[in-house]
Amino acid sequence: MYKKLYSILLISIIIGLSSACSNHASPYPEREPTKVLRPADLTAEELAYHEKYMQYTVDLALANKAIFSAIIVHNNGTIVCEGINMGFKMKDNTQHAEIVVMQNCSKLYSIQNYANYSLYTTGESCVMCQAAIMWNYFSKVIYGTSIKTLYCEKCMGQVLIDSNVINAYGVGLSDDYAPVQIYGDILANVTNTKVFLDYCTNKKVWTVTPNCTAPSSSSSSNSGSTITMNVLINALIALVAIIGFSSLL
Ligand SMILES: [Zn+2]
């Protein structure tokens, strides 16, 4: 009797373990998203500095009848490059404003390391753009409207990964990699109302039906406890299934 129970328990744990491990095959340690600095985290002087350049970025978008626009600013305060989304114009969906402005700048000035520059963008960078910003070693990226707002509140199609999640994985780019400092919601009261409109009711080709829930407080728990919980849950499920199966024999 006990031997049978012991065997069932052992098989359950093995199944649970193998199932949990197969879900975590990545060799890279899971990383916490990097901190995003919001207006409340900044001094009045810092906020005014970033709002000035964000206002310039907003004006660039509005003047070009665009919604996504980006500029690159040297640490000495000089605006060196500008760009707007060229996806429709170039029939190339990868021509996001951030990609356009970085390509413009690299062609003009042959810059491959933007450690002395900041990139301002009306909307939070997508996975593609954030990774490109990291590959170019920018020191700062500053955005107005978040991906969450674009998707959940404005029904705009987005890849649902926040830029600070991607940002955490730049450590693999070089041994002395310094994460990009992300500033969010800068002049968001303007970008949320004057640049990005309500596409839920004013439907565009990018309108989607959002599926958003309130963030879970445990969503950022570490991988260790998640794996342990998965092992226990899977073992329990397997145990119940095996006992049920055994009772049929
Ligand atoms: Zn993008």
What is the secondary structure topology, with strand pairs?
Elements: H1 2-22, E1 36-37, H2 44-63, E2 69-74, E3 79-84, H3 87-90, H4 97-109, E4 117-123, H5 127-135, E5 140-145, H6 147-153, H7 163-167, E6 181-183, H8 188-195, H9 223-248
Helix pairs in contact: 1-9, 2-8
Zinc ion binds at residues 96, 98, 125-126, 128-129.
Description of the structure:
- The two termini are 15 Å apart.
- Mean pLDDT is 86; it is low at 218-231.
- The chain has a six-stranded mixed sheet, sandwiched between helices.
- It has 249 residues and is of the alpha/beta class.
- Helix 1 crosses helix 9.
- It is built from nine helices and six strands, in the order H-E-H-E-E-H-H-E-H-E-H-H-E-H-H.
- It has helices spanning 2-22, 44-63, 87-90, 97-109, 127-135, 147-153, 163-167, 188-195, 223-248, and strands spanning 36-37, 69-74, 79-84, 117-123, 140-145, 181-183.
- It is globular and about 80 Å long.
- Zinc ion (ZN) binds next to helix 5.
What structural keywords apply?
binds zinc ion; transmembrane helix; single chain; 9 helices; 249 residues; alpha/beta; 6-stranded mixed sheet
Fraction in helix: 40-55%
What molecules are bound to this protein?
zinc ion
Q: Would you tell me the overall average pLDDT?
A: 86
Termini separation:
15 Å
> What's the oligomerization state?
single chain
Please outline the major beta sheet: 6 strands, mixed
- How much strand content do the residues show? 5-15%
Unreliable stretches = 218-231
Rg over CA atoms? 24 Å
Order of helices and strands: HEHEEHHEHEHHEHH
Which structural category fits the helices and strands? Answer: alpha/beta
Number of strands: 6
Organism: Polysphondylium violaceum
Pfam family, one: dCMP_cyt_deam_1
Protein name: CMP/dCMP-type deaminase domain-containing protein
Transmembrane segments: 227-248
